[in-house]
Specification:
The structure holds two protein chains of two kinds.
Chain A: H1 12-16, H2 18-36, E1 63-65, H3 80-84, E2 90-96, E3 108-116, H4 125-129, E4 135-137, E5 152-153, H5 155-162
Antiparallel strand pairs in A: 1-4, 2-3, 3-5
Chain B: E1 9-14, E2 17-22, H1 27-33, E3 57-63, E4 81-83, E5 88-89, E6 99-102, H2 106-120, H3 137-144, E7 163-164, E8 169-171, H4 181-189, E9 195-198, E10 205-208, H5 220-225, E11 231-233, E12 246-251, E13 260-266, E14 269-275, H6 288-291, E15 307-308, E16 311-312, H7 315-328, E17 334-338, H8 344-357, E18 363-365, H9 385-390, H10 402-411, E19 416-420, H11 431-435, E20 439-444, E21 456-459, E22 468-471, E23 476-480, H12 493-504, H13 513-523, H14 532-535, E24 540-541, H15 545-552
Parallel strand pairs in B: 1-6, 17-18, 17-19, 19-20, 20-21
Antiparallel strand pairs in B: 1-2, 3-4, 3-5, 3-6, 7-8, 8-11, 9-10, 12-13, 13-14, 15-16, 15-21, 22-23, 23-24
Helix pairs in contact in B: 7-12, 8-12, 8-13
Classes of the chains: A alpha+beta, B alpha+beta.
Chain lengths: ~180, ~550
Amino acid sequence: MAYVVPRPNLTWKEKMYLPSIVAGLMVTIKHLKNMLSGKTKVLMQYPEEKWDAHMPEHYRGAPTLVKDTKDRERCVACQLCEFICPPRAITIVPEEIPGDSKWAKVEKRPLKFDIDMIRCIYCGMCEEVCPEQAIFLRKDYAITGITRAEMVHDKKKLYELGGVFDGLVQKWNPLK
Amino acid sequence: MSTATEVQMLNVQIDGVWLQFPKGTRVIEACKQAAKFIPHYCYHEKLTSPGNCRMCLVEMGMPKMTPDRKPVIGADGKPEIGWIPRPQISCAQDVAEGMGIRTSSPMVEECRKGVMEFLLINHPLDCPICDQAGECKLQEYSVEVGQGESRFLDHKVKKPKNVELGPRVTLDAERCILCTRCIRFMKEVAKDDCIGIVERGSYNSIACHPDKPLVSNYSLNTVDICPVGALTSTDFRFKMRVWFLKEAKTIDVNCGTGANITIGSRENVIYRITPRDNDDVNGCWLPDSHRLNFKYVGDERRLKAPMVKGEPVEWRTAIAIAAEMLKAHSTASTALIASARATNEELWLTRRLIDELEIDKQHDVIPRIGEPDGMLVAADRNPNTTGAKLLDLCTNRPGYRLKKIADGVRNGSIKALVCLGEDATKAGLTEDDLKKLDALIVMDILPNKTTAHATVLLPASAWCEKRGSMINVKGRLQRLNKAVNAPGQARDDWEILRDLIQAVSGSNGLYLIEDVFKQMAAKVKEFANLSLSKIGDLGVQLLDEKKEEEAAK
């Protein structure tokens, strides 16, 4: 059903538009004055200056992989993040941890862990779904590259960005 | 399956509804037929019930009896039931006249919750690592009937992990819930009693006999029936999570049994093959040798482009040159080797090609005979010999004419040879013999000694890359389905054959595999009134089973 938008009935003053233009100019002049006197700072000299310190706690930047304080991989290649990822940016190839390894008990780790940052939409589903708390969205937002291949973060790069994360993780839980 | 004596029907009340079941039906089966959900681990319909997992507890009752052993009739005219105060396991009990069953009473639900808690006491929380995750009964029932949290605070019992039970099966004893399905399978079905339970109490663990590893050709079935991730396939271990697998219902082509299978693939790569239930063919089992024989499909060396004398050409050119060569040779100097591994549709088109070329009696298939194992591996290792016989691609003795063809090639009377999915060197010809031919037209999937000498090479599809039908040794018509795509420019075999027939004779207007079947059904009386869709997932009995078995002997 068609719906007719009612038009406002303007007074003769409003119809002239001049008062509104003047009011608008006043706002502009106020800002100009503040800027000239150094009261407000409008420009930030990016990338020398950055806004990073003001980023909120919940900011969702690039997804990364983290290690624990003992330099152990947290990811067990369960591929849940690959499954949940809406743009299918994650590709994991799992592998068995060789029996002679110190961490052979964990059995499984990612051989390859690629996140295609061209595809990634920074939704944070991977972080939410991870049962081992191995993937976190950190605050890196300036993910750039010259080629498509460069934009695919491999396992090494992901650990580089992720760093260390402390806290109890199920698979290291002695009570398990 | 008709028995002379009539089976006695018993009245059973399930969740307040009176139903009838034949005598001898297990309570759990009766509940299943009544569409009632009963979680269970140790019970398997093809095995005996030891009743050890305690998961299938239900409330049971028998009719109340008057002192003179007459059932008390209630107000509704039905016998009144005296409920047993304790829960009973439904898997080890047959139905009885007037029996009452409650599958979802508060007591039953409490029992299930309790049993789940006990089962999970020592079960590790390694679902993210475990291969069974996604198809694990413990996971499913834990969500459905279990409770969210564990009250168990002590250390879990440590048991051996990553134990090689046999060459193809890996055991993780920590995950095992001791349902003994694998033990019973090896004892009762595979007839190779080699697994058992060792240690005591909490340390109970599955183990293999020290001198008798799990080497049976049916060992991977234990992995299928394992309700948890204790037994895993060494081949599939950590390769892919099951929820990614796209499943295609098809049949096995490694022998004449035609076992029903499901192919699990992801992004055009096959990861595993599992048996599919069909009581008329393979029950729910599959031999290891058959289930692991799929790696060649994804081989790097697969033929990807049509070639003429070793040079890649376009399909159109390859077909035209092949037709030209066939037309240039007289009927007497042309022979054809077909394959009993091809589908009926392909064999039908091959038959038509033979008719067009008028080379009747100068064609045959290559037989493959192995040792039968008395269970699911048939002596005939070709999946469709019956179809080849029915469509007159070979005599009642497959391979009978091969010697004549080989002699003809050797003495130069045969100048053109067509090999459809078979290696001519397996038909008694040597590579030197093949060099003598003017025209060698080969359709295959992988390079072999024949493809090396092919004048025209036509890359075809593997069995899991095409649709079609096959007839097993018992005369059952079953359907192949497509699981993955053929690599490169390789095409469906039937399309290649259609184009070849078209180039040799003229238009024939077949555009769908269904049309090929329709055409075949119109001409071959055994296929009358059938279509690919009518075959269904479980197949139809096409020929007399006994007659086929005798013919095979």
